[in-house]
Structures are given as C-alpha cells and as structure tokens.
Specification:
Length: 366
C-alpha cells in the first residue's frame, strides 16, 4: 500500500507530462499509427511490375505469343523493345530494367519441330533476392506457355545474372548494410551528442561567443563527417577482407558521394537536435526517422512494388539514393553518367536538409 502511495504521484506526473506535450503526444500516439499504415501498404515481398526489356530476334507469331504470355502474367511489365545487343548493357547499367528477355532466331521453327526452344533471361543481379524471385516467375510463365499446346515442347530458360553471377546475397546485403550503418551513425550519434551539450549547458557557452551560424554548423558537422568516413573505411575493409566484396567502380567517386550522403544525414541530425530538449527526445525522434528511411529505401523491399504515393515519398529518403550509388559503384562499376539521377537527388536533399537545419539553428540560438 505504501509502495502504491509513493508510486501513484510519479505515474500521474509522467502521464501528465506525456499528454501535456503536443510533440510527445504526436510521437507516442500519432506517428506509430501513421508509420504502421504506410508500412502495411508499402512493404511486401511480392515482386510485381517487373520492368522488362525485350530483344526478339525471331519476330514470328510464336515469339509474339510468348511475349504476350509474359506481359499477360501480371508480373512482367514490358518497358522497352530492343533492336541491338548493345542496348542491353545500357539498360542494366542505368538500372532502367530488372530483366531482359532474349528470344533467339529460329524459336518458332524449333517449337514446331518439337525441340526445346531456348530463350534467355538476363537479370540485374545486384539484388539477389529479387532476381531469384523474377527467375521463378519467368520459369512459371514459360512452363504454362509450353503446356498451352501439347504438340510443342515449352521453352527452356537460360538465365544469367549480371553484376552478381551466382546471386550471392552477401554481395547485395553487405554494401547495403554500410548505407544503413552510416545513416544510423550520422543521425543518432550527432543528434544525441548535440542535445547532450544542451543538457549539461556547454552549448550556451558556444552561443555567447561571436561564432557565426555557418561556423557553428560546420563545427558541429565536420567532426562527425570525418568520423563517418573512418567508419565507412573500416566497414569497407571488413566487407572486402571477410565477405569478398570487390569495388568495381571508382573508389574516389564513392568517397566523394559518401560525403554528400553524410552531409545530408548530418543536416537531419541538426534538425532533430534543434527541436529536442533532452537526449530521450532526440533518441525517439531519430528512431522514428531512421526506421522508415531504412524500410522505404529499397534495402529490404523493392520500391517499384510500393504504391505510387509511397514511391514519390521515397524521393525524400537519402538512403534510397545512396543505395543506388553504392550498388552502382561497388557492384556494377559504373560512374557519373549512369548515376547522374541519384547523385543529383542526393545532392539536392543534402542542400535542403542543411538549409532547414540552418534556419532551425537560428531559432534555437535566438
């Protein structure tokens, strides 16, 4: 009874404190529900609307019938009809398609002769899980196509995964984990570190100095930027030494673009720290930002499977663009020409986040 008497005022105080703060009410009651609704719509392991290019060397009724079977399966979306072999490399390098279906000349003749008419499916192997699922869908479509007419044997698929020949999941997950860890490190550590200065009062000592706003922002971001580079280098070294990951592209370009990614993340951290008064608030806010950033980045679930509105929202996710950059340079070995869109989006987000952080820091200082 005595325990309850002592505990009751504390519980009442904590509940009142939680409900009284508008921001805390939104965080505790509103954001989890909103995030659950978004995730429920967006996160699915099904792979649909597979962007597919066609290279039909046969151009016969049989080959067109096969293409109709793929297009009508509900999984494959014919994105482009190719005329030359060299177009295949361009599409896969730019991640414009997930698969390229190649129908060789003589497909109809082989089919009429009762032979196994081979077709080829070229896959973007940077995402091994998605590639394996796409291959399964393609084999099912080909099998149904063969069963449609018992006089002919169905086509046999010869598959080849580009950039990840054996579809090894570690070659996909290990580089992607670098993007996740850099996001967590840069946002969580920086925001909590700055808010901790608020709590112990050392930030007021900085405010009373004649330091300018830009100097304050740089002073807060550069140390964490350097720490992020060290962390990234260590993770890359482990990925190469332990997991056999090889960087096929330009290492200097990777480091340069990583700096843009880190700078944008540090801008988010400054925004979080400017709005939080305690480390607990900063931790909770950072967590609520990190989780959707990771889940809606394409790391675990294909972005193309998500509803259109969610796909548009992922344009504001810096990790989405860094994942494309990381996979492009590390696995594909491509450069700025193939990665201009994610680079431009990444840079624009970094500028926007830093600009918002600058305005928030000004209010905090005032």
């Amino acid at each position: 009874m005595a325990l309850w008497q002592r505990l009751k005022p504390m519980l009442v105080k904590e509940f009142l404190q939680m409900i009284r703060d508008v921001r805390m009410r939104a965080v505790v009651f509103g954001l989890p529900v909103i995030q659950m609704m978004i995730m429920a719509f967006a996160l699915t392991t099904d792979v649909t609307r597979i962007r597919t290019a066609i290279l039909d060397w046969d151009r016969t009724p049989a080959s067109r019938e096969l293409l109709d079977a793929f297009a009508g399966s509900g999984y494959f979306e014919i994105h482009e009809v190719l005329q030359q072999d060299r177009e295949v490399e361009r599409l896969l390098d730019h991640a414009a398609v997930t698969a390229v279906l190649v129908i060789p000349a003589g497909f109809e003749n082989d089919r009429k002769a009762g032979k196994a008419a081979d077709i080829q499916l070229l896959l973007d192997g940077t995402d091994s899980n998605t590639s394996a699922i796409v291959l399964g869908y393609a084999m099912a479509v080909a099998q149904r196509f063969g069963q449609a007419d018992i006089r002919y044997r169905g086509p046999e698929i010869q598959s080849r995964a580009w950039f990840n020949v054996n579809l090894e999941s570690r070659l996909y997950f290990v580089p992607a984990l670098i993007a996740v860890m850099l996001l967590v490190f840069s946002i969580l550590l920086t925001s909590i570190g700055i808010v901790r200065e608020k709590e112990i009062g050392t930030i007021e000592q900085i405010m009373v100095t004649p330091i300018r706003k830009i100097e304050y922002i740089l002073g807060k971001t550069i140390p964490y930027l350097a720490a992020g580079y060290v962390t990234m280098s260590l993770m890359l070294a482990v990925a190469m030494a332990v997991f056999g990951v090889r960087i096929h592209g330009n290492v200097l370009l990777l480091y340069l673009l990583t700096g843009i990614y880190l700078f944008g993340n540090l801008g988010i951290a400054l925004i979080v720290s400017a709005s939080a008064q305690t480390q607990q608030q900063a931790l909770l806010t950072a967590f609520l930002i990190l989780m959707p950033c990771v889940l809606l980045s394409g790391f675990m679930f294909p972005i193309r499977n998500m509803p259109e509105s969610i796909q548009i929202a992922t344009w504001l996710n810096p990790m989405r663009w860094y994942l494309e950059i990381l996979r492009g340079i590390v696995m594909k070995g491509v450069g700025i020409r193939a990665l201009w869109q994610p680079i431009a989006c990444q840079a624009a987000l970094a500028v926007v986040f830093i600009a918002i952080a600058a305005s928030r820091v000004k209010k905090t200082l005032s």
